[in-house]
Amino acid sequence: MKVTGKRRTKEELRVAYKNIQEAAVFTVDRKEWRIEVDKIALKLAATRLKAAATTEEVLPSEWLKAAELATVTCPKCHGSGEYRWGACVNGKPPAKGGPCFACEGKGRQDQDDFFRNRAYWRRAIARAVG
After folding, report:
1. Residue 99: in which H helix or E strand, if any?
2. pLDDT tens-digit profile of 45-75?
3. Which regions in the chain score pLDDT beneath 50?
């Protein structure tokens, strides 16, 4: 038996979407994230309509689901999953490096990474300032 939660209002869906959006664009490019969300939302709407969909036909719940499913290339490691620092010498990358902590070595960031990174970096900034 499938258990469903309380039906959310449009305003509650907008607030949830806004929270995900703020966390996402804190760490990644807003435009890249929005393109990914649009692609997923249109796929969800097309599945529901059983035909091609436009952005006007996407329901608020589908926008929220798309925001939850969106993954973006990690800006720290550029999708490699390995963070490296130091100067390239004769075209060779530096030996200094390790797994990327922003994406946990996956090369892409998802919703969980957005929230974890935002919380960590805010805490690190607060500790450095005060």
Report:
1. strand 97-99
2. 988 888 888 878 888 889 999 999 999 999 8
3. 1-3
| Cα Rg of the chain (Å, integer) | 18
For residue 108, list its beta bridge partners: 73
pTM: 0.73
Two tokens at 1?
Answer: 């038996």
Nearest to residue 114, comparing CAs of 17, 21, 43, 50?
21
* Cα–Cα distance for residue pair 29/55, rounded to 1 Å: 21
Q: What is the residue extent of each domain of the chain?
A: 9-70
Contact 75, 104 (CB under 8 A): no
Angstrom distance (rounded) from CA 95 to CA 84:
8
Q: Which two tokens stand for residue 84?
A: 């490296």
